[in-house]
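In the previous chapter we treated chains in isolation. Here, by contrast, the input contains two separate entities that must be folded as one system, with a combined length of 545 residues.
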Amino acid sequence: MLEIKNLSYRVENADIVNSVDLLVPDRSFMVITGPNGGGKTSLAKLVMGISTPTGGSIFWDGQDITALSVTQRARLGISYGFQQPPRFKGMKVRDLLEIAAGEHISHDKACSYLTKVGLCARDYIERDVDSSLSGGEVKRIEIATVLARRCKLMIFDEPEAGIDLWSFARLTETFQEIHDRKEASILIISHQERIIRLADEIVLLAGGKITAKGSVDEVYPQIVSDTVAGCNRLEVKGAC
Amino acid sequence: MLNDIQKRILEIVADMKDTGSGAVNIRSDGEKAFRRNTEHIVIESKTDKDGIDIRIAPGTKKEAVHIPVLLTKTGLQDMVYNDFYIGEDAEVDIIAGCGIHNCGEGHSQHDGVHTFYVGKNASVKYVEKHYGEGDGKRTLNPQTVVYLQEGATITLETTQIRGVDDTKRYTKVICEGENSEVIIRENLLTEGEQFAHSEMDVFLNAAGSRAQIISRSVAKDRSVQVFYPRAEGNSACFGHVQCDAIIMGGAKVRAIPEITCNHVDASLIHEAAIGRIAGEQILKLMTLGMDAEAAEQKILEGFLR
């Protein structure tokens, strides 16, 4: 179980994450959504240890991990899919999957991870993860590395970004399968209705604070009513 | 016949277990240590200077020839001239590593001049690994010259693994036949106070000729590297020169890719990038459970593969 207690992240007098309390139960599916700049990615990075909080604490299975490094958290069973994953000159898809899995993996095993993100192992396994791959391909490989880790907590930062409709459909099936099999807790930052609707619980994060939390039926109507297209400034103040 | 040091270095530079199989010429401490010819590959010592002639019969398919050089005596200065005559339609792998074990105070040096005459539609893969160990200074200065006839292709894979204190490399390829092709992959690692200088000249003289030059290097500590790959298009041809370097510590890298088009249908591209390992790459591997040091090593291994 992941427990976030009074967590804050302040940069140059701006409260990016502001006293957040959150509980992610084992084998649950939680989606964090909200407007751009609301603190979603920052919160996910704090959990993974990529950023250091300015206040509060993070507990994982009862252990205070606030001061632990990224590596230590990864070894405790927390995995993380980057919104914009890096590319590696000379490193192959197979290399990344094997590092993630922590062992040599067979072609069939590699195939199973890649198929779950809509890629064919035969076409990709020996390819370098460099600029010869499109953004969507790199993103799907990134997600496959998280799947290969088989961690108790999987964090994905906007997994849908840059992915085509067909692959996205396959990806949502994969998330659903993991959840149905109760293989892991899934924490996803997303703006996609299709992913949001898979969640047990939705968290709305805006201005660094949790402004709503609950089931899809409770929170989604509020999100829809809050996101009428237009210019807030024009509507509120009458001028841009 | 071969001692343990020689066997170990052979495995590092030429992936050979003992004397291996197929055509082989092992040169050790300035002398022929072992030779084996095959039906299609004949190796003969030169009579006018140090070195060998390697003749690969036309039509030879899927054979390999290993010609490693070992230096295990401190202070030895070795200079050889090796000429390769590759017959038409032959397909061959040539493995030519050089390893120096210098445990004395002398300066060990091997200078090799390799010249390839690649016949019509022949295909050659040339693999060269350089390695050094011990306290004494180790220098390797390879020169490679290639002449490609019509439809001939050569892939030059050269790697400086580690332990070479000083190197001055020169590679010259002349695509004189139509539709000939050269691929050069040069991987280089320097550390400590080591120095590496690599120059290349590729002349694309015939219609349809192609060149791809990929240089990858890692410079650590206070080492210095200089790259000067040049491609010249004198016909309807295509060439791509790419220099990538990772710089660490107090190292210095200078890359000067140069392209010259002397024909309206010549198409040449060059690109060069030098920089430290991207922090996001290390971070990504840390999220997969590696510590920062292991992540850095993994990134460098991949980069120099």
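The domain at 2-237 of chain A is CATH 3.40.50.300 (Rossmann fold). Chain A touches chain B through 24 residues (CB under 8 Å). Compare these points with the single-chain example from earlier in the chapter.
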